Amino acid sequence: MASSTPSSRPCAAMEKTGQWLFSQDIPSDIIVQVGDDTFRLHKFMLVANSGYIRRKVMESDRANLGSIDLSDVPGGAEVFEMAAKFCYGVNFEISVHNVAALRCAAEYLQMTEDYSRGNLAERAEEFINQAAVKTLPGAVALLRSCEGPLLPMAEEVRIVQRSVDAISLKACNEANIPTRSPPDWWAGELAALAPASLQKILSAMKSRGAAPKSLAAAVVVYAEKSLAELLPLSSGAPAPNHSGDARIRLRGPLESLVHVLPPHPDAPLPVGFICCLLRAALFLEASAACRRELEQRASASLDQATVADLLTVSLDFAGERIVDLDSARRIVASFAEREARGGGGALYGRGGGVACCSAAVQKVARTVDGFVGEIATDEELSVSKFAGIAGALPKSARRFDDDLYRAVDIYLKAHPGLDEIEREKVCSVMDPLKLSYEARLHASQNKRLPLQIVLHALYYDQLKLRSGIDGEAAAGALGVTLGREEGPKADVSLIRENEALRSELAKMKMYVSELQRGGGEGSGVKMGSKKTSFFSSVSRRLGKLNPFKQGSKDTSNIDDGVGVDVTKPRRRRFSIS
């Protein structure tokens, strides 16, 4: 069977040609070879319309040219057969799917007006101008037919440019005044195109003044249709289960789409959509450049992200297992670096002080706190990864650390085997002096927290009692940012008191460290103020607030000097216990 195949192909081609040759009485005098197909035709019919074949016949060294190879003709044997039918005057159908190939073949064979009036090139041009580009689906089909083997000739005869112009014009009109339902139907038509063609259309739409919202909608709909199996945007969507070969096949279209995404100012894409693309890139093990581009885009819109968006990047498709936290950390860190450079609100003030953060920074801080609270229960989450994400933003990004304290407490409870140093590293991401009263009260009785953190919380209350001011003013005295505008002249006495209190706090830390080295353990250390001169420099109220007095962490009888009933119900839950 294999040996009979080559000989049967010419026979089949000749039989097919014989069906439309005008006469079988005149023998053919030229054989045209197009790939594996052979056509027995007549010279005088071909040279009358094709300048290329006429020149080949005239330039031949032989007096009687008997064969010619046209394997390079655009469109191959199928398109050449239609061109030959045109030379013989045989009718055939021209459509939006083959007109581009016919026009390119006419250009290659030089079937133009220079050799015959009403030649194939003119007929193809008439169809393109009067039918193909008149509708959006027709223009899209025409542009799609130009992709692949017809390039670059399709660009040389300006079929690609005319298609792009027609599509961009009609897409802009539909985006402004929809004529069908749903309103973004025009964007769905573009899904049949290659990413390179989409890029040309988006650039043309931008030059026509299309709104960024329209450009973003086109990209989103295009991705949802062309990469539907990789972008389960709805929750609970089934996870893709692709083999290695399937991943390689899908990796190319994804990387091509990311490469042609319009710049962020031109088409601000939804951050949730970017996170879905990033998850797909991680799943397909896309190139580092592809992942980096998506991370930068997610970082640029992080103030619009939700906790679910960050979880999309970090969890697998089923949402059950953490597969990547480095991307989420880099996204948050990149946002912090951009803000620190003055992109959307100062993070640092002069002289080591803290300046007021923008609303975007504070919103991102709340999102990050909620995110780390969600992943804190993962038993395989290491201390370094938890601290790396929770601490990616500077401490000045938060007015209060209550949400972050909750995440820390959840992590400590989910990882009971941590030693003192590891627990201190976990707690280092938050500032105990920026906890609300309820959170400080909870922290003072939290056995999971390191001793230093408890002392910080108690010392804050001592500062309030000594200063006789409210909580926010006391936090300001310790240099904590509460988002208020302060004048250029600071209160000199308040600054001095702040430095003195910091010095006392440092001495207290040293004292506690000495007690621990001397054999004191946890809450079993009894701090008698009469045994050392250190407590003579600290207010007696601190001794009353000390929960370690008498070796107990029960704070039900604490008197904070302002008549606050500590047994009142808490307004918010800060622990998972």
From TrEMBL:
In what residue span(s) does the BTB domain sit?
28-96
Q: Which residues form the NPH3 domain?
A: 184-464
Q: Which UniProt keywords apply?
A: Phosphoprotein, Ubl conjugation pathway
Tell me the pathway. Answer: Protein modification; protein ubiquitination
Q: Which InterPro entries match?
A: BTB/POZ_dom, NPH3/RPT2-like, NPH3_dom, SKP1/BTB/POZ_sf
Region Disordered: which residues? 545-564
Q: Which PROSITE patterns match?
A: BTB, NPH3
Show the stretches that span the lipid bilayer.
none
Q: Which family does it belong to?
A: Belongs to the NPH3 family.
Protein name from the UniProt record? NPH3 family
What organism does this protein naturally occur in? Musa troglodytarum (fe'i banana)
